């Protein structure tokens, strides 16, 4: 019995000592880990400030390994991967966050938004759309709808784009009436390509009614009416643009001339063009006026004189070229000179996107370069 008590008396201090030593070791390890995580984090932040993204990613990976439960480090890492174009790694980071059961609702929504952006940047539009739909009813709802709108416009899903634009307008984001009129115009163009002119006319009439201030539906409606042999209706539709002094009216000048000639309304069209030109001088309107001039020599000479008058209002190589080519009291221009003038004026006759600078021979309502709407001024490059 005495031996047993001796061992107990000896064992108690030993057990206490071993326990104390173990606790000290655990505390030391915890302190080391806690020191390592902030050190790696601040190292990564320093690399970011110095725009050294590769080293920042390595530092954040080290910090995540030291503290795998820190969601903010995961978000930082996912954003860095996306900015570097490593979309597959960004997707894995955000999917890992979404798989965590301990993630708060706010962080889960944030991770879902990050995942949607990963898919969007990677060009995986179907997956991006699915991820964006899951953000309905969250603080990211407005951003998600705008992203979905861009997806539908890019994939030319005009009815879906109109539905999302309607939701955005109802939520107070902006007025999308002109944008939705563009969607109807795009559907009308597709209907014309499919040979369904009646449907196209209906869509354009609806667009004109929904957005009376939008010029594109009226221009397309007038052009389609003219193509369908409705010359008088086309003339009335297009003349309204000039009567309103719409800035986009020059885009319809050539179509107005054709409609007026077909409907026997040349004098009325010339009057409308002259009234518009007096307020907004423009080379396209000037050429339309010249086309409608009567065939009498005196009238033709007076019409040709307009190019010289136009040069007094604003310098224009296009107008100068037209004036030189129309001179009848001298020998015609030598072929090399005429060709040189044509080459010099060709770039000036283009249209240029005000958002990205993309130039094209024809006017675009939806820029093929930057996807912006109504970014092309209805004037030639020379007149900007």
From TrEMBL:
Signal peptide per UniProt: none
Residue stretches of each TPR repeat: 37-70
The keyword Cytoplasm is assigned to this record: no
The UniProt record lists the keyword Transmembrane: yes
Family, per entry: Belongs to the LapB family.
Purpose of the protein: Modulates cellular lipopolysaccharide (LPS) levels by regulating LpxC, which is involved in lipid A biosynthesis. May act by modulating the proteolytic activity of FtsH towards LpxC. May also coordinate assembly of proteins involved in LPS synthesis at the plasma membrane.
Name assigned to this protein: Lipopolysaccharide assembly protein B
Organism: Limnohabitans lacus
Upper classification of the organism: Bacteria, Pseudomonadati, Pseudomonadota, Betaproteobacteria, Burkholderiales
The gene coding this protein: lapB
């Amino acid at each position: 019995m005495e031996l047993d008590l001796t061992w107990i008396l000896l064992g108690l201090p030993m057990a206490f000592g071993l326990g104390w030593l173990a606790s000290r070791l655990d505390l030391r390890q915890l302190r080391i880990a806690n020191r390592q995580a902030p050190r790696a984090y601040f190292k990564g932040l320093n690399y970011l400030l110095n725009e050294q993204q590769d080293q920042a990613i390595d530092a954040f990976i080290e910090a995540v390994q030291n503290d795998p439960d820190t969601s903010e480090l995961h978000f930082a890492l996912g954003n860095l991967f996306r900015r570097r174009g490593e979309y597959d790694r960004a997707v894995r980071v955000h999917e890992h966050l979404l798989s965590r059961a301990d993630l708060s609702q706010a962080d889960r929504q944030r991770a879902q938004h990050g995942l949607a952006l990963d898919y969007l940047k990677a060009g995986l539009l179907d997956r991006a759309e699915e991820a964006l739909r899951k953000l309905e009813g969250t603080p990211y709802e407005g951003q998600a709808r705008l992203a979905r709108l861009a997806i539908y416009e890019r994939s030319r899903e005009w009815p879906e784009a109109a539905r999302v634009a309607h939701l955005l307008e109802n939520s107070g984001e902006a007025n999308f009436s002109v944008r939705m009129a563009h969607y109807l115009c795009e559907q009308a163009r597709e209907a014309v390509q499919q040979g369904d002119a009646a449907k196209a006319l209906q869509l354009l009439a609806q667009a004109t009614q929904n957005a009376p201030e939008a010029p594109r539906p009226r221009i397309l409606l007038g052009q389609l009416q003219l193509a369908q042999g409705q010359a008088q209706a086309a003339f009335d539709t297009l003349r309204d643009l000039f009567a309103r002094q719409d800035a986009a009216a020059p885009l319809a000048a050539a179509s107005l001339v054709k409609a007026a000639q077909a409907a026997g309304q040349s004098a009325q069209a010339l009057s409308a063009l002259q009234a518009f030109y007096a307020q907004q001088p423009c080379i396209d309107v000037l050429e339309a006026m010249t086309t409608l001039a009567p065939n009498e020599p005196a009238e033709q000479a007076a019409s040709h004189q307009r190019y010289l008058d136009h040069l007094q209002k604003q310098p224009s190589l296009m107008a100068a070229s037209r004036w030189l080519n129309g001179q009848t009291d001298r020998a015609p221009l030598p072929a090399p000179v005429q060709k040189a003038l044509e080459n010099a004026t060709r770039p000036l006759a283009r249209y240029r996107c005000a958002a990205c600078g993309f130039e094209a021979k024809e006017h675009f309502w939806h820029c093929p370069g930057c996807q912006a709407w109504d970014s092309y001024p209805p004037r030639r490059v020379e007149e900007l």
